[in-house]
UniProtKB/TrEMBL annotation:
Record-linked Pfam families: Ig_2
PANTHER family per the UniProt record, alphabetical: B-CELL RECEPTOR CD22-RELATED (PTHR46013:SF4), VASCULAR CELL ADHESION MOLECULE 1 (PTHR46013)
Residue ranges annotated for the Ig-like domain, each copy included: 1-73, 83-161
The protein's name: Ig-like domain-containing protein
Annotated signal peptide: none
TM stretches of this protein: 169-190
Entry keywords, A to Z: Membrane, Transmembrane, Transmembrane helix
């Protein structure tokens, strides 16, 4: 096989089958136990693709018998593809625990791996997976995984966060302060709301009072129609006078609806005098 071991995509590959025979042997080529169209001693692949890869073998045959060759593997060679990196414990890692940084990449031939920490020139590990036991806060930082083979190389990185006891206390303190502040704002809002809300005023329809004066030659009677809870309502009054212009009236005022006179009322009786100036 030329070149030996495989070839990169779109390159050419030449397979050769040879057998010493007399009369000269005839050849047949097979891939994955399927016979190919070529009957020559050489099988030529002009532009290698992934579909061309696999196990090949040939047979040589004449009138006296046949022989089968061994298998030869045709592989597609390529540089490492974008490596995938991850941490065994997502998020923050607790101190004094074990954490593993993982790295993987598809490559042919198989890739080699190296782990580096930011700011350091020497690799931390030459394994695919980098394990740190009893991790400390100083282990926090950016880590890079370098992947390479004979066809090329790539690098991918991740950030490791190790939560120290001091960091935990700071976080707990911040959360506690935030909760207390939120509670204070809530109580303040409730208090301001109570102060701002006015109690609804009970609306009452204004009462109308009808005052009627009936005249007689010597006196006038004043009659009032009103609600018993007159002290709590606004009154509108209308007065009707039926008088002779020459009469002088003395009026007695009394409510139409069940008004009970008290001793105090007896002492505070008022008299009204209406004079006609004409």
């Amino acid at each position: 096989m030329s070149p030996p071991g495989g070839a990169v995509q779109n390159s050419s590959v030449n397979l050769t089958c040879h057998s010493d025979a007399n009369p000269e042997a005839k050849y047949a080529w097979f891939r994955a136990n399927q016979m190919l169209v070529s009957e020559e001693s050489q099988l030529f692949i002009k532009s290698l693709q992934a579909s061309d890869c696999g196990e090949y073998y040939c047979t040589a045959e004449n009138q006296f018998g046949s022989k089968t060759s061994g298998y030869v593997s045709v592989e597609l060679l390529y540089a490492p593809r974008h490596p995938s990196v991850s941490v065994s414990s997502p998020g923050e890692v607790e101190e004094d625990t074990t954490v593993t940084l993982r790295c993987s990449s598809d490559a042919n031939p198989a890739a080699n791996y190296s782990w580096y920490k930011e700011g350091e020139n020497s690799p931390k590990s030459s394994e695919q997976n980098f394990t740190i036991t009893h991790v400390r806060a100083e282990d926090s930082g950016h880590y890079s995984c370098r992947v390479w083979n004979t066809r090329g190389h790539l690098t991918s990185s991740l950030h490791l966060v190790v939560a120290s006891d001091v960091t935990k206390l700071i976080v707990v303190g911040i959360v506690s302060v935030a909760m207390v502040f939120s509670l204070f704002l809530t109580l303040l809002w409730i208090r301001m709301k109570k102060m701002c809300v006015k109690k609804p005023t009970k609306c009452r329809k204004p009462l109308q009072t009808r005052v009627q004066i009936k005249s007689r030659p010597t006196a006038a009677t004043l009659e009032l129609d009103q609600d018993q809870d007159q002290d709590q309502a606004l009154h509108y009054a209308s007065i009707h006078l039926h008088l002779d212009q020459n009469d002088v009236l003395y009026s007695n005022i009394r409510p139409v609806h069940g008004y009970r006179q008290t001793d105090e009322d007896e002492d505070s009786t008022e008299y009204t005098c209406v004079m006609d100036q004409s």
